[in-house]
Design goal:
Number of helices: 7
Structural class: alpha+beta
Number of strands: 11
Strand content: 25-35%
Shape: elongated
Oligomer: single chain
Distance between the termini: 59 Å
CATH class of the largest domain: Mainly Beta
Order of helices and strands: EEEEEEHEEEHHHEEHHH
Helix content: 25-40%
Length: about 290
């Protein structure tokens, strides 16, 4: 069986999906091939990650007779969360993928059905399939529901996360997931958890102080940003105001009596992510000084 990649297209709808077209030629003179589907892999820095499963378009199973050539169409169903993940790993560059089809070769020997299953990896003539950035952004993304969205490249968190900050990436990832799924209350809740984790991590590093709670009049331990940003007092004071202000914005009491809106969740995620990224990178810089 010889298969070649023809093209990638996008179709809009309630749920966006990608359409892949492949030409397959059965060069075996006596055996049939049945193709039941497959999956799409994203290629990132030499590694590959499964993005979605491929489903046949017009038949449950594509059957190709001996000597027959067929144009096969497969669909890959997506959510906006999938599209967001693609954008993160793409990093503003070309998109690289590969396709793998699940096939079964079969025929008859002495009136008994015999066959063997195998995987067909489909690439372009030059190796992995390249989807140019211009094609992806200009033609495909708009049809996947991104025509009303301005894409913002958000820097990834550092690859090495200090032990004290290890829980923060999972909270931020959950916040993104709930935001894309429309669960804005849960998105803000995870942002609040991330902020609490930041404060705990900074205190564990030894940058802490005691203050009197204005409401309870009790002592409590909080991050000491002046120590954390040693030698930059004005920066520390400004950052502390930002940190406290965002933490207050994320409290349930700030949104009593009404549902949290998408813009509020958006503001919470972008702000929390930026502060977390800045604090972690500052901690790493201090560690290496």
């Amino acid at each position: 069986m010889e298969c070649s990649y023809i093209g990638l297209y996008a179709e809009d709808g309630i749920f966006p999906r990608l359409r892949f077209e492949v030409d397959c030629m059965n060069i075996n003179p006596s055996m049939y091939f049945s193709i039941v589907g497959g999956y799409v892999n994203l290629k990132v820095k030499g590694n590959q990650y499964m993005l979605c499963r491929l489903s046949p378009h017009s038949e449950n199973i594509y059957t190709i007779r001996p000597g027959e050539k067929r144009r096969l169409i497969f669909y890959c169903d997506l959510t906006l969360y999938h599209v967001e993940l693609i954008e993160r790993v793409r990093g503003g560059e070309d998109l690289w993928i590969s396709l793998t089809l699940n096939s079964k070769m079969w025929g008859r020997a002495e009136d008994f059905l015999v066959g063997a299953s195998n995987w067909i990896v489909i690439r372009s003539a030059y190796g992995d399939i390249k989807v140019p950035k211009s094609e992806w952004v200009g033609e495909i993304l708009p049809k996947l529901g991104y025509k009303r969205v301005r894409l913002i490249e958000v820097p990834l968190l550092p690859e090495r996360i200090p032990e004290e900050f290890k829980d923060i990436p999972s909270y931020l990832e959950e916040a993104w997931k709930h935001y894309l799924g429309g669960d804005y209350d849960d998105a803000i809740d995870n942002c609040r958890r991330a902020m609490m984790a930041i404060a705990t991590a900074v205190r564990k590093l030894g940058y802490e102080k005691e203050e009197i709670d204005e409401k309870t009049k009790e002592k409590r331990t909080v991050p000491d940003w002046k120590k954390f940003f040693s030698g930059h007092e004005i920066l520390a004071e400004s950052f502390e105001k930002m940190f406290r202000g965002l933490y207050g914005f994320l409290q349930p009491g700030s949104h009593i009596g009404r549902a949290i809106s998408r813009p509020e969740a958006e503001c919470a995620i972008m702000s929390t992510y930026s502060l977390a990224n800045y604090v972690i990178k500052s901690a790493l810089k201090s560690e290496n000084a």
